[in-house]
Design goal:
The structure holds 2 protein chains of 2 kinds.
Chain A lengths: L1 H21 L11 H14 L4 H9 L1 H22 L13
Helix pairs in contact in A: 2-3, 3-4
Chain B lengths: L7 H23 L8 H24 L5 H21 L36 H33 L1
Chain lengths: 96, 158
Protein backbone atom coordinates (compact mmCIF):
# COMPACT_ATOMS: atom_id res chain seq x y z
CA UNK A 1 0.00 0.00 0.00
CA UNK A 2 2.82 2.38 0.98
CA UNK A 3 4.81 1.49 -2.14
CA UNK A 4 1.77 2.05 -4.37
CA UNK A 5 1.21 5.48 -2.83
CA UNK A 6 4.87 6.37 -3.36
CA UNK A 7 4.72 5.19 -6.98
CA UNK A 8 1.60 7.27 -7.64
CA UNK A 9 3.21 10.35 -6.08
CA UNK A 10 6.39 9.76 -8.10
CA UNK A 11 4.50 9.45 -11.39
CA UNK A 12 2.37 12.49 -10.55
CA UNK A 13 5.37 14.74 -9.87
CA UNK A 14 7.31 13.36 -12.84
CA UNK A 15 4.37 14.06 -15.14
CA UNK A 16 4.29 17.68 -13.98
CA UNK A 17 8.05 18.08 -14.50
CA UNK A 18 7.90 16.49 -17.97
CA UNK A 19 4.98 18.73 -18.87
CA UNK A 20 6.98 21.78 -17.79
CA UNK A 21 10.07 20.55 -19.64
CA UNK A 22 8.25 20.10 -22.95
CA UNK A 23 6.79 23.62 -22.85
CA UNK A 24 10.02 25.43 -21.94
CA UNK A 25 11.30 28.31 -23.99
CA UNK A 26 14.52 27.70 -25.96
CA UNK A 27 17.70 28.05 -23.92
CA UNK A 28 18.91 31.63 -23.45
CA UNK A 29 15.69 33.36 -24.52
CA UNK A 30 14.31 35.18 -21.48
CA UNK A 31 10.68 36.05 -21.01
CA UNK A 32 11.27 39.75 -20.48
CA UNK A 33 14.66 41.11 -21.55
CA UNK A 34 14.13 44.88 -21.35
CA UNK A 35 15.97 45.27 -18.02
CA UNK A 36 18.84 42.95 -19.06
CA UNK A 37 19.31 44.83 -22.31
CA UNK A 38 19.42 48.14 -20.42
CA UNK A 39 22.12 46.86 -18.06
CA UNK A 40 24.22 45.40 -20.90
CA UNK A 41 23.90 48.52 -23.05
CA UNK A 42 24.51 51.14 -20.35
CA UNK A 43 26.68 49.58 -17.62
CA UNK A 44 29.96 50.59 -19.25
CA UNK A 45 28.85 54.17 -19.83
CA UNK A 46 27.10 54.76 -16.50
CA UNK A 47 29.17 52.79 -13.99
CA UNK A 48 32.48 52.67 -15.94
CA UNK A 49 32.87 49.01 -15.00
CA UNK A 50 33.55 46.30 -17.57
CA UNK A 51 32.06 43.59 -15.36
CA UNK A 52 28.32 44.08 -15.78
CA UNK A 53 27.52 41.63 -12.98
CA UNK A 54 29.51 43.71 -10.50
CA UNK A 55 27.90 46.87 -11.86
CA UNK A 56 24.47 45.37 -11.13
CA UNK A 57 25.43 43.95 -7.74
CA UNK A 58 27.23 47.02 -6.37
CA UNK A 59 25.50 49.88 -8.17
CA UNK A 60 22.09 49.19 -9.71
CA UNK A 61 21.16 46.68 -7.00
CA UNK A 62 23.39 47.95 -4.21
CA UNK A 63 20.59 47.69 -1.68
CA UNK A 64 20.47 43.93 -2.23
CA UNK A 65 24.19 43.69 -1.49
CA UNK A 66 23.61 45.65 1.71
CA UNK A 67 21.10 42.96 2.70
CA UNK A 68 23.60 40.23 1.88
CA UNK A 69 26.25 41.94 3.99
CA UNK A 70 23.72 42.18 6.82
CA UNK A 71 23.05 38.44 6.58
CA UNK A 72 26.79 37.74 6.82
CA UNK A 73 27.06 40.11 9.78
CA UNK A 74 24.19 38.35 11.55
CA UNK A 75 25.82 34.96 10.88
CA UNK A 76 29.15 36.12 12.30
CA UNK A 77 27.51 37.62 15.38
CA UNK A 78 25.50 34.44 15.91
CA UNK A 79 28.52 32.15 15.67
CA UNK A 80 30.63 34.37 17.91
CA UNK A 81 27.83 34.44 20.48
CA UNK A 82 27.41 30.67 20.34
CA UNK A 83 31.12 29.80 20.63
CA UNK A 84 32.28 32.52 22.99
CA UNK A 85 34.10 31.55 26.14
CA UNK A 86 31.91 31.67 29.24
CA UNK A 87 32.94 33.85 32.16
CA UNK A 88 34.28 32.00 35.22
CA UNK A 89 31.04 31.17 37.02
CA UNK A 90 28.63 31.84 34.15
CA UNK A 91 26.12 29.23 33.01
CA UNK A 92 24.30 28.91 29.71
CA UNK A 93 20.89 30.59 29.73
CA UNK A 94 21.73 32.74 32.74
CA UNK A 95 20.69 36.38 32.60
CA UNK A 96 23.63 38.72 33.01
CA UNK B 1 45.18 15.92 14.63
CA UNK B 2 47.49 16.63 17.54
CA UNK B 3 48.16 19.99 19.14
CA UNK B 4 50.96 20.72 16.66
CA UNK B 5 48.65 20.42 13.66
CA UNK B 6 49.04 18.04 10.73
CA UNK B 7 52.03 16.25 9.20
CA UNK B 8 55.25 17.86 7.97
CA UNK B 9 54.16 17.47 4.33
CA UNK B 10 50.95 19.42 4.88
CA UNK B 11 52.73 22.10 6.90
CA UNK B 12 55.45 22.55 4.26
CA UNK B 13 52.94 22.84 1.41
CA UNK B 14 50.85 25.28 3.46
CA UNK B 15 53.90 27.44 4.15
CA UNK B 16 54.62 27.55 0.40
CA UNK B 17 51.04 28.16 -0.75
CA UNK B 18 49.22 30.36 1.75
CA UNK B 19 50.91 33.60 0.65
CA UNK B 20 49.96 32.95 -2.96
CA UNK B 21 46.36 32.22 -1.94
CA UNK B 22 46.16 35.52 -0.05
CA UNK B 23 47.62 37.46 -2.99
CA UNK B 24 45.18 35.77 -5.39
CA UNK B 25 42.26 36.67 -3.11
CA UNK B 26 43.31 40.33 -3.02
CA UNK B 27 43.69 40.25 -6.81
CA UNK B 28 40.11 38.97 -7.16
CA UNK B 29 38.88 41.76 -4.85
CA UNK B 30 40.86 44.48 -6.65
CA UNK B 31 39.74 43.44 -10.14
CA UNK B 32 36.11 42.97 -9.10
CA UNK B 33 34.89 45.57 -11.57
CA UNK B 34 36.89 44.06 -14.47
CA UNK B 35 36.89 40.28 -14.16
CA UNK B 36 34.55 37.70 -12.63
CA UNK B 37 34.65 37.83 -8.86
CA UNK B 38 34.50 40.68 -6.41
CA UNK B 39 34.45 41.42 -2.73
CA UNK B 40 32.54 38.35 -1.58
CA UNK B 41 34.52 35.86 -3.65
CA UNK B 42 37.94 37.37 -2.98
CA UNK B 43 37.23 37.69 0.73
CA UNK B 44 36.26 34.02 0.85
CA UNK B 45 39.53 33.08 -0.92
CA UNK B 46 41.63 35.06 1.60
CA UNK B 47 39.67 33.53 4.49
CA UNK B 48 40.32 30.06 3.02
CA UNK B 49 44.07 30.77 3.34
CA UNK B 50 43.52 31.49 7.04
CA UNK B 51 41.49 28.28 7.35
CA UNK B 52 44.37 26.38 5.69
CA UNK B 53 46.81 27.83 8.22
CA UNK B 54 44.50 26.90 11.09
CA UNK B 55 43.97 23.32 9.91
CA UNK B 56 47.61 22.55 9.17
CA UNK B 57 49.28 24.32 12.10
CA UNK B 58 46.52 23.97 14.69
CA UNK B 59 45.25 26.71 16.96
CA UNK B 60 48.64 27.02 18.69
CA UNK B 61 50.45 27.84 15.43
CA UNK B 62 48.17 30.78 14.76
CA UNK B 63 48.54 32.31 18.19
CA UNK B 64 50.27 35.68 17.90
CA UNK B 65 49.82 35.88 14.12
CA UNK B 66 46.11 36.74 13.98
CA UNK B 67 44.38 38.86 16.58
CA UNK B 68 40.73 37.90 16.99
CA UNK B 69 39.72 41.33 18.30
CA UNK B 70 41.51 43.06 15.42
CA UNK B 71 39.60 40.82 12.97
CA UNK B 72 36.26 41.67 14.58
CA UNK B 73 37.05 45.40 14.61
CA UNK B 74 38.07 45.28 10.94
CA UNK B 75 34.75 43.65 10.09
CA UNK B 76 32.90 46.61 11.56
CA UNK B 77 35.23 48.94 9.64
CA UNK B 78 34.30 47.16 6.38
CA UNK B 79 30.58 47.31 7.14
CA UNK B 80 30.73 51.00 8.07
CA UNK B 81 32.79 51.84 4.97
CA UNK B 82 30.20 50.07 2.78
CA UNK B 83 27.33 51.95 4.44
CA UNK B 84 29.24 55.24 4.29
CA UNK B 85 29.90 54.83 0.56
CA UNK B 86 26.21 54.11 0.08
CA UNK B 87 25.27 57.22 2.04
CA UNK B 88 27.82 59.33 0.12
CA UNK B 89 25.44 59.46 -2.84
CA UNK B 90 22.35 60.26 -0.76
CA UNK B 91 22.13 63.68 -2.48
CA UNK B 92 20.76 61.90 -5.54
CA UNK B 93 19.77 58.49 -4.23
CA UNK B 94 20.89 55.85 -1.77
CA UNK B 95 23.74 53.89 -3.44
CA UNK B 96 24.15 56.56 -6.14
CA UNK B 97 27.59 56.14 -7.74
CA UNK B 98 28.86 59.71 -7.50
CA UNK B 99 32.48 58.90 -8.39
CA UNK B 100 31.89 57.10 -11.71
CA UNK B 101 32.98 59.12 -14.76
CA UNK B 102 33.62 62.12 -12.50
CA UNK B 103 37.24 62.45 -13.66
CA UNK B 104 38.50 62.32 -10.09
CA UNK B 105 41.90 60.72 -9.54
CA UNK B 106 40.32 57.92 -7.51
CA UNK B 107 38.43 55.49 -9.78
CA UNK B 108 36.98 58.39 -11.80
CA UNK B 109 38.11 57.40 -15.30
CA UNK B 110 35.72 56.42 -18.10
CA UNK B 111 35.96 53.16 -20.03
CA UNK B 112 35.70 52.76 -23.82
CA UNK B 113 32.35 51.32 -24.87
CA UNK B 114 32.60 47.81 -26.26
CA UNK B 115 34.87 44.84 -25.58
CA UNK B 116 38.19 45.85 -24.01
CA UNK B 117 40.59 44.72 -21.31
CA UNK B 118 39.07 47.33 -19.00
CA UNK B 119 40.44 50.24 -17.00
CA UNK B 120 41.53 49.51 -13.43
CA UNK B 121 41.18 53.12 -12.29
CA UNK B 122 37.46 53.31 -13.14
CA UNK B 123 34.13 52.32 -11.70
CA UNK B 124 33.61 55.03 -9.10
CA UNK B 125 32.42 53.63 -5.79
CA UNK B 126 32.20 50.05 -7.13
CA UNK B 127 35.87 49.11 -6.46
CA UNK B 128 35.77 50.92 -3.10
CA UNK B 129 32.66 48.95 -2.14
CA UNK B 130 34.41 45.78 -3.34
CA UNK B 131 37.26 46.52 -0.93
CA UNK B 132 34.83 47.24 1.91
CA UNK B 133 32.84 44.05 1.33
CA UNK B 134 36.04 42.05 0.80
CA UNK B 135 37.45 43.25 4.12
CA UNK B 136 34.15 42.44 5.80
CA UNK B 137 33.88 38.93 4.32
CA UNK B 138 37.50 37.92 4.92
CA UNK B 139 37.52 39.08 8.54
CA UNK B 140 34.03 37.70 9.20
CA UNK B 141 34.71 34.22 7.80
CA UNK B 142 38.19 34.12 9.35
CA UNK B 143 36.82 34.93 12.81
CA UNK B 144 34.05 32.32 12.35
CA UNK B 145 36.64 29.67 11.44
CA UNK B 146 38.96 30.62 14.32
CA UNK B 147 36.20 30.71 16.93
CA UNK B 148 34.63 27.44 15.74
CA UNK B 149 37.98 25.62 15.75
CA UNK B 150 38.87 26.86 19.22
CA UNK B 151 35.37 26.04 20.50
CA UNK B 152 35.50 22.53 19.03
CA UNK B 153 38.99 21.98 20.49
CA UNK B 154 37.83 23.03 23.93
CA UNK B 155 34.97 20.53 23.86
CA UNK B 156 37.37 17.81 22.69
CA UNK B 157 39.65 18.18 25.70
CA UNK B 158 36.89 18.28 28.27
Amino acid sequence: MRKVALLVAFLFVSAFLLLAATSMRPFGVPNDAAMDDYFIANAQAEVAANNVVTAVVFDYRGFDTLGEATVLFAAVVGVLTLFRKLKDDEQWGEAR
Amino acid sequence: MNEQGMSVIVRTVTRLVYGLVIVFGFYVIMHGHLTPGGGFQGGAIVASAFALLLVSFGAAGLKGRLNKHLLQSLEEVGALAFLGLAFAGIGTAFFYNLLANSGSFLFGASVPIGPSAGVLNAGGTVPLMNWAVGLKVLTGIASIVIVMLIGARKEETE
